[in-house]
Design brief:
mainly alpha
Length: 195
């Protein structure tokens, strides 16, 4: 493995064939349906702590945080609304499509776009986690949602969709978006309650 970068070696160490059950679990973790109970819990916790009007504002800001994260990631993959913002940015193939890695990787499905940097899954999960953890204000919830984000991020490596570097960049994008939208939500919530 002398001609591999650290990122590629780390990917190959983390990516393995866990069998059909593990493939199914990681595909489910990487999907959206599995996380509906988490979103319902977040809505319940925010409503309970702040009230219905604050919840409605929170849902808008949460959607913005996740949407902005996804769009920012699209810049680097040349997809989505902002795909032409940085047209000369050099794209990076997903591990499943990388000629140096693909034959060594465990690939569950090839039904993905060709490019992986920056991970939109990591970004949207981080945005959701940060804005909700700050709003809910519970250490236990913060630990649980952090573990969920790490699980989602790992699923993307397991499925050969992203290199670890793609994940780290996505986490950074999501953290910035989540923090910014949390600040916006708090400011709008204060204005709403003072009007």
């Amino acid at each position: 493995m002398g001609d591999f970068t650290f990122d590629e070696r780390l990917f190959l160490w983390l990516n393995f064939d866990g069998g059909a059950v593990m493939d199914w679990i990681m595909s489910a973790v990487s999907g959206t349906l599995m996380w509906i109970p988490l979103y319902l819990f977040i809505a319940w916790a925010v409503q309970r702590k702040y009230g219905w009007k604050s919840l409605l504002l929170f849902v808008v800001c949460l959607a913005l945080a996740m949407g902005i994260s996804d769009m920012l990631c699209g810049i680097f993959k040349h997809t989505g609304l902002l795909k032409d913002v940085w047209a000369d940015f050099p794209v990076r193939n997903r591990p499943m499509f990388d000629v140096k890695i693909r034959d060594l990787a465990h690939v569950v499905s090839l039904h993905h776009g060709p490019y992986g940097t920056v991970s939109a899954h990591a970004a949207t999960a981080a945005a959701m986690a940060l804005i909700s953890a700050l709003a809910i204000g519970s250490k236990r919830y913060s630990w649980i949602v952090s573990a969920i984000v790490l699980l989602i991020c790992y699923s993307r490596i397991y499925l050969a969709c992203h290199f670890p570097q793609d994940i780290v960049l996505g986490l950074a994008v999501g953290a910035i978006s989540g923090w910014a939208m949390y600040l916006l939500w708090r400011k709008l919530d204060i204005l709403l309650k003072n009007s």
